[in-house]
Design a protein that fits this description.
With 444 residues, the chain is mostly helical. It contains 20 helices and no strands. The chain has one domain: Amino acid/polyamine transporter I.
């Protein structure tokens, strides 16, 4: 069976002038509570949504374990994030379709199902990490996981299904402002800026399984597989066309740079506070330890500041991600979706949303007791490593679509840009292969 499937009708929806026209099919639409985020810019929202519980755990562990050594990687991956997000934003502006819709129209059903399975696995793992974040944040206030996780899951389900989450989202988004404190805290901690600059331009590599795990996890949390999907759908929902795309492109670039700047300062904060102490020079195992990176800014209030930020980010992502995933999968298979529908009118949509929330909560309640020696923060890093392994698969679909002239017309990648994009795909693919080899055959 061929990998590609011809799109029905006029190839790629091309007009006589060669520019693809917008799809007649009703575009992906965010629920009302998410649509208001579009005014802040799809690029900024999609990129910063990645700075969630798993990201905080991963970046903090990178800084606490290896100091400034991986900052060079963050500089390079910022370029890759811009390229990946820009390609998807451009596809949305040119075609008026979400990523899952384009995959459905241009690939055989088996490959469409495979792509949606990748997105579903990535989303399910990330939802687990959000409930781990909820548990870790509220544990700082001595709230049991067996209380915080079920109540959090119930609250998320109720506010979405009952349609009352529009105001709740704004509250959770406001909580995440606490993480911007890492930028101030990094300066107040007094890092060695010469070392920071050195490690930003001089690559470092260690033959250490932990180093490779954190490397893959950093890739997986910085360019999570669900992020391009969310961005492209938001661009479509916003109604951006290719004539208006110049401003959207800058939104994507600014969003990626801003999100990764925050990530770099999380690493610097952890390196300047935790790495300097031999007792904490290791992957972070406890939220209390992670909170110490904010001590230069908040002093004795660091724990509360960290808990508020972690809880807000986790609750926000724990309902945004299941919603966007349910929409995308239903879009790919032509199933009815939308919170304006009743359960019997959109059973697959509500079933997927409910299943993802229930799965994330149950894993956090069941698995940690079976692995009593494994800290919650270590599990957060594992989920990001899984995203790093799944990322190359989705990137290949994106590259095939964005370079198809029947779909994109004259707006395919230019040769130089395409080279950078393929270098990203090949690099993360080789990284995933090496990491899988280490997992199955050992570090040697």
């Amino acid at each position: 069976m061929p990998l590609r499937r011809a799109t029905r009708g006029t190839p790629g929806g091309a007009t006589e002038g060669g520019a693809p026209e917008r799809a007649r099919r009703r575009p992906f639409r965010w629920p009302r509570g998410l649509a208001w985020l579009g005014i802040l810019g799809p690029g900024l929202i999609a990129a910063n949504a990645g700075n969630d519980a798993g990201a905080i755990a991963t970046y903090s562990s990178v800084g606490s374990t290896y100091g400034y050594e991986l900052i060079w990687m963050m500089v390079l991956i910022t370029v890759s994030l811009i390229v990946v997000q820009e390609m998807c934003a451009r596809m949305g502006a040119v075609t008026g379709k979400g990523l899952s819709d384009l995959i459905r129209e241009n690939f055989p059903i088996r490959w469409t199902a495979f792509a949606m399975l990748v997105i579903l696995i990535s989303a399910a793992g990330t939802v687990v990490s959000e409930f781990l974040g909820i548990a870790a944040a509220l544990s700082l206030f001595n709230v049991s996981t067996y209380l915080s996780v079920p109540l959090g899951a119930l609250a998320i389900w109720l506010v979405v299904v009952k349609g009352s989450y529009r105001q709740v989202e704004k509250i959770f988004l406001f909580f995440t402002v606490a993480f911007f404190g890492y930028i101030v805290s990094a300066f107040m901690a007094g890092p060695d800026w010469e070392k920071v600059a050195y490690h930003a331009v001089v690559p470092q590599w260690e033959r250490d399984p932990l180093f490779l795990t954190l490397f893959v996890a950093t890739v997986g949390t910085t360019i999570a597989p669900w992020m391009p999907m969310v961005l492209q759908s938001t661009v479509v929902e916003k109604g951006t066309n290719i004539r208006e795309y110049a401003l959207e492109k800058w939104d994507v670039i600014i969003g990626a740079v801003f999100a990764d700047t925050v990530a770099i300062f999380i690493i610097i904060s952890a390196a300047a506070t935790l790495y300097q102490n031999p007792a904490t020079r290791q992957p972070i195992e406890d939220a209390t330890v992670a909170a110490r990176a904010l001590t230069p800014l908040a002093g004795p209030w660091a724990t509360i500041l960290f808990a508020v930020g972690m809880f807000g980010a986790s609750m926000l992502a724990a309902h945004m991600l299941p919603l966007s995933t349910a929409f995308s999968i239903c879009e790919a298979f032509g199933w009815e979706s939308g919170v304006s529908n009743r359960w019997n009118e959109a059973p697959y949509f509500y079933g997927l949303f409910t299943g993802l929330v229930a799965f994330g909560a149950l894993v956090v309640l069941v698995v940690p007791p079976l692995l009593p020696g494994v800290p919650l923060f270590e599990m957060l890093v594992w989920v990001q490593a899984l995203n790093g392994l799944l990322l190359p698969i989705l990137l290949i679909f994106i590259m095939l679509l964005v370079n198809d002239r029947e779909i994109m017309g004259e707006h395919t990648n230019k040769p130089g840009y395409n080279a950078v994009a393929w270098v990203t795909v090949v690099s993360v693919s080789l990284l995933a292969i090496v990491y899988l080899g280490m997992l199955f055959f050992g570090p040697d």
